Amino acid sequence: MSHLIKLPAAGEAAWEPVPADKIVTGQPQTRTWVLYDNPGEKLCAGEWEATVGKWRIAYAEWEYVRMLSGHCVLTGDDGTTITAGPGDAFVIEPGFTGTWEVTVPMRKHWVIRE
Which pTM was predicted? Predict the structure, then answer.
């Protein structure tokens, strides 16, 4: 068994609206590509894209993000803020609550561990 896996290119994915009860501003939509999934290790990776808008988020998982395009601002309920654009990377830890605002349509690579 090989321990080296090349991920496929992201294909087509349907746009999904952010649930109305989470929206703060705009009418944001997202789409997600899961390119790697290892349930036994509670680990997955892929790409994600979003349109302009702002919504509430609450994390129970750990996520690594590498921005590919666009811009976003994450603001924690504690006042902590990260502004990110192409090439930036950041980590969201379990327990984070706040808002995700997309100011320029964005795309990211992500890795999530539950």
Answer: 0.93
